[in-house]
Target: PAS domain S-box protein
Amino acid sequence: MLDAIIVMVSLLFIIWFPLIWPVIKPSQPDSLSMILSISYLFLDLIFLLGVTIVLFSENKKINVLPILLLALGIFLQVLGDMAYAYHVVVPNLEYLYFADLLYSSTSFFVILAIISYLNKINIDIRDYLSIYRKPLLYNDWISYLPLILVLFTYSLLLVTSPDAALIWGVGIIVTLVILRQVISLNEIRKAQITLKRNKEIISQRKAQLDFITSNMLDLISESDEKGVYKYVSPSSKQLLGYSSEDLLGKSMYDFIHPDDSEKVIESLKESQGIAEGMRIEYRYKNADGNYVWLETTGKPVFDEKGFRGFIYSSRDIRDQKKAAEFVKKSLKEKEALLREIHHRVNNNLQIISSLLSLQSDNVVDERDHELFVESQNRVRSMAMIHEKLYQSDSLNSINFSDYIETLLNSLIYDYTKDLGHIKLDLDIEEVDLNIETSVPCGLIINELVSNALKHAFPNGRPGKIMVKLHQDNDQFILEVGDDGIGYSEEEVPENGKKLGFNLVKSLLQQLDGSMEIQHGNGTVYRIVFSELKYQKRF
Model:
């Protein structure tokens, strides 16, 4: 603001004394008359100064555009007053026309200022004003403009005949310059005090940051776009054995294991491309020459010039890796143990099935022999499930469609001597069922298919066994049927007390399912159930 005042006053005297004062001086009997004759110009300048103060104020209450328009109008008013004063001393219509034009322009800009204020029209001049604040090259000489104008004004004393008015004018400008320097020195002193205080604060915060990063378990670092370290926290000594100075200026890729370098590079490129953070595990060479496992979280950093590098947070995960290897090894051991258990259960059930088969050879009564065969098939249906689990990649479930095909082929082989007169019609969706559901579902299929093979095709009658399994959202739809002779009203299974059908009903309750029997050309059982959830036994 003081620079603006010095520039305006200097320009006034530079224009006034060489051009106007020599003309009007003879008409002024003394200095007081001269001062009064140009006082209205100073009033204009004071008014202009007030407007400028409001314009430069950070807490101005009105918009920028009205102030700019008003300042321009007042500046034209100053020029108009100077032209009119010249006309009064040296009458000339050109000076009068020029003064009238400037006065009209003043009125025009003042009216525009009022209109913009009433309609709240504004412009943002912060970008334009910021040009003066930016440390550009030409700002160096702009900052010396007030002093240059003062020297030029002072030179008027040398090139003109000095009188009281000129000496007083130059004295006013010199006083303003001295005031400017006093304020500047005071601001410099305040800036030095603030700078010293800020340096102390920065030093304290740096010491605190060094203390924190030296005692933290994580390593904080920053690299440029090529992976060269720009900052490494002191915790590198504790974590890797390197001091910060040992790593600064070196590429992080020089310390990463060759087998992990490509993975790290690709991960960083991907993170830079999507401008998001990344997390990666890799091996890093420590000061002893050994490779340790680190987990690093990185974030790309951008500025107005674009990508500038990464900021990382790394930690030692050797213990986690050992724990993970131990868990992995333990899981493999448990998986092997579970497979062995299923294998042994399958073997034991096969032994029970074989014992029942041997025992049935000694049974004379046909009905009793049939009961042994039925029990043998039930045991074998359960044994197959454990066999499938043993062979499965997952111990949680089995491919139930494959299990059904194996079970049906085994039942047809046992119940029919002529394998050609019974056909299979399978429409089974690829589904996986856990052991909780597979065992009762397999027993149900075993009972229903066994019953059809025994009763639906007497005397070698040809026929077809139909089995369908489909999934509908969370439910499974199982259909088991045949195109055999069907049942009479007295033989409807749900009305009887046969063991097989009672077993089916009990298994349906276990599955929380429902069954619908369709009679007609044969018999079709339509069962709807859901997969059971594993229930902890202990």
Notes: Confidence is low (pLDDT under 50) at residues 135-139. The CA atoms of residues 136 and 142 lie 10 Å apart. The chain has three domains: 13-129+138-189, 216-318, 397-530. The two ends are 85 Å apart (CA to CA).
